[in-house]
Amino acid sequence: MQIDDSFELYTQLESLNLLKNKPPFWWPNYGTFEVLLGAILTQNTRWEKVELSLQNLRDNDLLSLEALATVDSDILMSLIQPSGLYKSKAKYLGQLCNAIIDQYGDFEQFSYEVDRGWLLEQKGVGPETADSILCYGCKRDVMVVDAYTARLLDAFGYAFESYDGLQSWCESGLIHHFETDELANVYANFHGMIVEYVKAYSKGKRVDILRLTDQS
DNA sequence: GGCCAGGTGTAAA
DNA sequence: TTTACACATGGC
């Protein structure tokens, strides 16, 4: 069996109830400033390590735009050390927080006004991080794709040349099946389901798609 | 012990 | 314009 479009994949994933024990819209603290931190900290790093760093920041009252914009960089580095790549991440986080304050004032305004182009201009923010911030932090109708997404679709015989190509395939199959104001939540859950599926049903780098194809 | 994780920036070729 | 490597920690 083949997956013809992303809507078919989406409905198959939904039937597996993969998000039942997850936070709403998958990413912890969806729609808050904390998502922005997680998006940077999780780069090439396991989420459990990000949680350690976030807890360190919380214990030091640093989970705010203003606090992170001014905190001493040595302190920041030591608190996010569990997530690895901590020197770069500390620098990028500080710069990003300062840029947001300069450009938008606060996180709420940022979340309404920021666009993908502005995020991509910031050091340390590539396509996946930008889209994670837009989708899970700013509640925008943007689909995050990543190595898990590519791996799952590879198992169905799909290959994409670029991040944008993969993203377009995911979004275009869904866009006509939902109301415009539903898309942000649909994309958020879709990406979350993909990650959870691949985590649950992979052996090494091979994804077992039988769990999906067996459904129908 | 080597490969990998919810990537990105930079410098060679 | 593509490719290779560094960034850093810890799980398996």
Topology record:
Blueprint: H1 6-14, H2 33-41, H3 47-59, H4 65-70, H5 73-80, H6 86-104, H7 107-113, H8 116-121, H9 127-137, H10 147-155, H11 163-174, H12 183-200, E1 202-203, E2 206-207, H13 210-213
Antiparallel strand pairs: 1-2
Helix pairs in contact: 1-11, 2-3, 2-9, 5-6, 6-7, 10-12
The structure holds a DNA duplex (13 and 12 nucleotides).
Provide an overview of this structure.
The protein is mainly α and 216 residues long. The protein folds into two domains: 6-22 and 142-213, Orthogonal Bundle (Endonuclease Iii, domain 2), CATH 1.10.1670; 33-137, Hypothetical protein, domain 2 (Endonuclease III, domain 1), CATH 1.10.340.30. 61% of the residues lie in helices and 2% in strands. It is built from 13 helices and two strands; from the N terminus they run ααααααααααααββα. A two-stranded antiparallel ribbon has the order 1-2. The model has no long low-confidence stretch (mean pLDDT 96).
